[in-house]
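Dissemination and training. As part of the outreach component of the grant, students in the summer workshop were shown how a complex can be specified as a set of sequence lines and then modelled as a single object. The example used during the hands-on session is reproduced here so that future cohorts can follow it. Participants entered these lines:
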Amino acid sequence: MGIVWKGLVESLRLLLAGDPYLWGIILLSARVSGVALLISAIVGIPLGALIGLTHFPGRRVMQALVYTGMGFPPVVIGLAVYLLLSRNGILGPLNWSWVPQLFTVPAMILAQVIIATPLIIGYTMAAVSEVDVNLRLQLRALGATPRQITWTVLQEARQGVIVALVGGLGSIISEIGAVMMVGGNIEGSTRVLTTAILLETRRGNFDFAIGLGMVLLAISFSVNFIVAQFQRKGQ
Amino acid sequence: MTATPLYTLRHVTKSYAGRTVLNVDALDIHRGEILAIVGPSGAGKSTLLRLLNFLEFPDSGTLSYRGHTVQPNNVPLSLRREVTTVFQRPALLSTNVWRNVTYGLRLRGERDGKANMQAVMERLGLTALGRAPARTLSGGEAQRVALARAMVLDPTVLLLDEPTANLDPYNVGLIETVVAELNHERGCTVVLVTHNVFQARRLAGRVALLLGGHIVEIADTHTFFESPRDPRTAAFVNGEMVY
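and obtained this result:
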C-alpha cells in the first residue's frame, strides 16, 4: 500500500512541478490519439452512416468486415503496420513521401487509426440503425435530400455517435501493443503513456509508473464525465 | 378546379413481395381540391399517398405530376418540395417544438417563411409550446406540430395519412378546421386518407373508395354519400364491413 501512496504523491508532485519528461509523454499521447481519433471520425462516421442507412450490394459483407475489424487484436494491427512500413515490407521500399516511416509519430497514428476506425464505423452503424424508420420517411416527405437525411439522422443518433467516439478513443489511448511495435517507445519521440508505464514498471520506477497510470485514468474519467454530461443534456 | 389535373394516374400498379397492393386504372387529382380516400385497412390508401409524395414509384403505369412523368430519380427537388405528408404517427425530431416546425424551412435555407410560422403556430395553438421538448407533447399536440411543420412550407399539395386517428374531438376539430382553411385560403390541394367517413364528408369535395388496391368509386361528396353507384360504396358509407 505504501508504494501506491508514494507513487500517487510523487506523480502529483511531478505533474504540478511541470516535469518536462512526464508532460512530454502526456502531450504526445494526447496528440497521437487525438489526431488518430479525428481521422477515424472523419472516415468512420460517414461510413457508419452509409452502411447503416443505405442498402447496396455487398452491404452484409461490409458489415461482417467491420465487425471483424472491431474485434481485431491491436497487436496484430501493429504487426501488420510494421510489415507494411518496414524496409523489407510492402510500402517501405517504395520511399514514397506520404508513407510514414517506422518508429515515428505518423506510424503510430496510422496504427491507431486502423484500430479505432472499425469501432467508430460499427458503433455509428448501430446508432443510426436505431433511429425510427418512420422519421426517415417523414424527412424525405418534408423535402430533405439524402445528405440532409443522413445529417439529421446522425443528429438524432448523436448519443450513439458520441459513444462511438469515446469507444474509439478508449481503444487507442490505452492500447500498447501496436504503438510499441510501430513506435518503438523512443524517449522524446514516440514514448506515450502506455509504453512509458511498461518501461518504468520494468525499471522499478513504480512511483513514476503509477503517476502515469493515474494520468491515463484521469484522461479516461474526464472524457467519460464529459460524455455523461452530454447525455444528460440530450435527455 | 382547373381543367388540367395536378396529378394523373393511369394503370398504376404497386406490389410488395409479389402481392399487388395498388392497381389504379385512372385517377385525376385537381389543383385546389380536397380529395378523400376512404377504405378499409390494407386497401392501398397509404401506398397511394407514398406514390403521390414520390417516396415510392409505380411498378407499372404512369404517374404524372404537373405534366412531369414521375420515375425513380427523375423528380426535381423543386417539384418534390411542393408536396408533403403528415403521417398518422407524427415522427418528430428529438428537439423542441420550434426546431421541429422550422425543420423544413431550414432544409430549404429559407428565412422568409418564419414570419408565416408565427401565424401557423398561433393558429394551431402551439405558441406557448415553442420551447417544449417534442417528447413531452401529448398525441394531439404532436400531431399539431407535424401539421404546422408541413403548413409553414406552404405546400402545393398536402397529403394527410389518417391525421386524426386516435385524437380527441378538440384536436380533430382544430386540425379539420385548419386543413379546410389552408385549402380555401391558400388553394392548397389536399389528399386525405381516412377510415372516418364522417371526416371525409365534412372536409372533402370528392371522395374515392379504395378496395383491394382498386378504386371502386370516385364521386363528388354529395353523390358518394347520397346516391353511390356501386353497392360496395353504399355498404361502406352505411358502416357495413366491406373488403
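Chain A touches chain B at residues 132, 134-135, 137-138, 140-145, 148, 152, 155-156, 234 (CB under 8 Å). Students were then asked to discuss how this feature might be tested experimentally.
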